Amino acid sequence: MPASVVAAPAPRFLFDGPPQGPTLVLAHGAGAPMDSPFLAAMAAGLAERGLRVARFEFSYMAARREGAGSKVPDREPELRRAWLAAIAELGGGPRLWIGGKSLGGRIASMIADEAGVRGLVCLGYPFRPPGAAAPAVVKRTAHLRELRTPTLIVQGTRDPFGGPAEVAGYALAAGIRIRWIDDGDHSLVPRKSSGRTAAQNLAEAVAAVAGFVLGGG
User: Fold this and answer.
1) What is the pTM of this model?
2) Can you list the domains of the chain with their CATH numbers?
3) Is 91 exposed, middle or buried (0-12, 13-18, 19+ CB in 10 A)?
4) What is the 3-state secondary structure (H, E, C) of 115-133?
5) Of the chain's two ends, which shows fewer C-beta atoms within 10 Å, N or C?
6) 59 near 83, Cβ under 8 Å?
7) Is residue 5 very low, low, confident or very high in pLDDT (cuts 50, 70, 90)?
8) pLDDT tens profile 109-155
9) What is the maximum alpha-carbon separation in the chain?
10) Which run of H or E residues covers position 25?
11) Cα(118)–Cα(96) distance, rounded to whole angstroms?
């Protein structure tokens, strides 16, 4: 019988773009891995604009590849430790921009000041779970009031985790910019009836992030 084939473990990081470019480290959302279509497309687009993009996975998602991971994300302290470990492995905060999709960006925002990173990029910030009451909003936004790190949040105008009308009422630090993507959902995908395409919205998001990083925040 032929020897069984064991799948190679996923690499610690996935890299796109020129090694000499400014490095943006991205973590995934709660339910999709670092090589999800959304993050892969973002990384490819940013690489074309001269950024070096490094993607990594939290331990629960990496374990899921081996059939042992939970569908539930790790607890917040573990997620924070994972982010700090990734930053250390890539040379330290002052060399890096960090962020991610949804959960990945939210946890990055919680350690950005501590790590001393150059800037923060959140792709679909989960200001609250859809339909959640005020306490959940406070939990996810309280630290954003005092955030010192230059920050760009790229958010769809139809994002159920936080749209323009409600986000306008949040007390956010002066260094936080929000780039609204017209008719985008939590992954920036528009409705067909809007006359826009997913590719168009993604291109706008890539342009906004590249401009933010290359412009120094």
Assistant:
1) 0.92
2) 14-214 (3.40.50.1820)
3) exposed
4) HCCCEEEEECCCCCCCCCC
5) N
6) no
7) very low
8) 999 999 999 999 999 999 988 877 666 677 789 999 999 999 999 99
9) 65
10) strand 23-27
11) 6
Quote the distance between the C-alpha of residue 175 and its chain's center: 18
Residue type, 40: A
- Amino acid present at 114: E
Place of tokens 């992030």: 209
At residue 175, the 3 state secondary structure works out as coil
Reading the block at residue 149, the tokens are: 């790190």
User: Where does residue 189 rank: exposed (0-12), middle (13-18), buried (19+ CB within 10 A)?
Assistant: middle
Helix pair angle (103-115, 76-89), 10° resolution: 60
The token duo for 111 is: 């350690």
Residue 17 DSSP class: S
Among 19, 128, 129, 14, residue whose Cα is nearest residue 65: 14
| Distance from C-alpha of 23 to C-alpha of 19, rounded to nearest angstrom | 8
| CA gap 58, 85 in Å, rounded | 11
Tokens of 108: 């990055």
148 sits in the region (left: phi over 0; alpha: psi -120 to 50; else beta) called: alpha
- Neighbouring residues of 142: CB distance < 8 A, sequence distance ≥ 6: none
Share of the chain above pLDDT 90, in %: 81
